Amino acid sequence: MTSLSDLPIRDDLRGLEPYGAPHLHLPVELNVNENTHPIPEDVARDIIESVARELLTVNRYPDREFTALRESLAGYLVSTEPGLELGPEGIWAANGSNEILQQILMAFGGPGRSVLGFPPTYSMHSIIAHATGTRWIAGERDADYLISPETAVDWVRRSEPDIVFLCSPNNPTGTALGLDTINAVYDAFDGVVVVDEAYAEFTAEGEPTALSLLEGRPRLIVSRTMSKAFAFAGARLGYLAADPAVTDALRLVRLPYHLSALTQAAAVAALAHAPEMLAMVDDIKFQRDRIERGLAELGYYPWPSAANFVLFGGVSDPEGLWQQLLERGIIIRNLSIPGHLRVSAGTAAETTAFLDAMRELTPR
Ligand SMILES: *Cc1c(COP(=O)(O)O)cnc(C)c1O
């Protein structure tokens, strides 16, 4: 049998681990921060009709510039952020925000260049860095997973990266980042600042996002996704907002026709129902708050979360507890943070099942 190490693989990929969230099918799946609420049936019907229409011309290549989709995405973002001026030329999309991040690193990173991130953070950030030959620099956070402007700037000055990845709210900690930190990082160097806002829709109402900083900052990129709030993880649609010059850079590295006609049609149809699609966000936030309260009552230490998941400490045996939940048909996430586990907010019933199991499994 041939093993990976027998192959003439790139030296810089030897010994690396692939993205590895266990993908098991269980009654209660709260492990990868999906939106567990199914999309409303009338929206699903609309999406099916749009995709069906598109299928009739699928012998042709799709719109390489996905113009209708970019208009829909710009319209959606403008509707969420008061005062935001953003047109389709400032939008780019790809098959999930993971592909967005990969394209950014292909255009602005690569061999001889580096990206600074602040673990614990989304594991794909360093994996995509390695895959594109970009050196990953692990910065350090302040206490309570926060990053002050001073700490961030200090890391930028010391490590001289070409790109900085910030994640707000941060996965897996749920921590929201102040706009002052993003601003300070931008001013501290001449490189590209990427703010991964995959969970933006779950932050407190009226809280400005990094979109509000785009004006006059051509090296700032705000990455978003339809995977979480829009319950569209299986459709694969991520996007970014930035100066139009950034999209010109990405055209150099993307594969032509990277977004299928079916993906484009499905996303446009879903965005036409944005308010309905997002109606479940309020319930998810409510369930998240229930988890925070419930875990605290049991003696655990949930970190305040602005996303759709909760990281909690005070777990004496994370792997053991993860296994015991699994035996009860519930999967959450063990990220190997000592004493911690992460759970996604589910439906009311899933959240209740999780909290009930935790009550049973917690020694008094
Ligand atoms: C889930 C997640 C994504 C989403 O990735 P997609 O490829 O859009 O599904 C991006 N960033 C972070 C921080 C995430 O947690």
What can you tell me about this protein's structure?
The protein is α/β, with parallel strands linked by helices and 364 residues long. The protein folds into two domains: 9-39 and 276-361, Aspartate Aminotransferase, domain 1 (Alpha-Beta Complex); 41-272, 3-Layer(aba) Sandwich (Aspartate Aminotransferase, domain 2), CATH 3.40.640. The chain has helices spanning 41-55, 67-80, 97-108, 123-131, 149-159, 179-188, 244-251, 261-271, 274-297, 318-327, 348-361, and strands spanning 28-29, 91-94, 114-117, 135-138, 163-167, 192-196, 220-225, 238-242, 301-302, 309-313, 330-331, 341-344. The strands form three sheets. Strands 2-8-7-6-5-3-4 form a seven-stranded mixed β-sheet, with helices on both faces. The chain has a three-stranded antiparallel β-sheet with strand order 9-10-12, with helices on one face. Helix 6 links the parallel strand 5 (163-167) and strand 6. Helix 1 packs antiparallel against helix 8, helix 3 (97-108) crosses helix 4 and helix 9 packs parallel to helix 11 (348-361). The model has no long low-confidence stretch (mean pLDDT 96). The structure holds pyridoxal-5'-phosphate. Pyridoxal-5'-phosphate binds at residues 33, 96-98, 122, 167, 171, 196, 198, 225, 227-228, 233, 238.
